[in-house]
Amino acid sequence: GQQYGIKGFPTIKMFKGVGSKARRPSDYSGERSAKAIADHAKSILPSLVASIKSDGVDAFFQDASSVPHIILFTDKTTTSPQYKALSTKYHDRISLGEVRVKAGKGGEIQDDIAKRFGIKTLPTLLVFKPGETDPASATRHDSGLDANALISIVSSVVGVADGSSTGSSSSSGKPATEELNTGDLPLDASKEQSKKVFTKPDAHETKAAKITSGSQFMEKCAGRSDGMTCIAMFYDLAARPDLETELDPLLVKFKYEKMAFVILDTSESKDIQHLGKTLKIFSEKEGAIAIRPKKQRYAVLQHEFEFASLQTFLERIVGGDATYQKLPDLSKEPFIKNEVKEEKSCGTDSALGGDTGKCEL
Question: What's residue 202's pLDDT?
Answer without folding.
Answer: 67
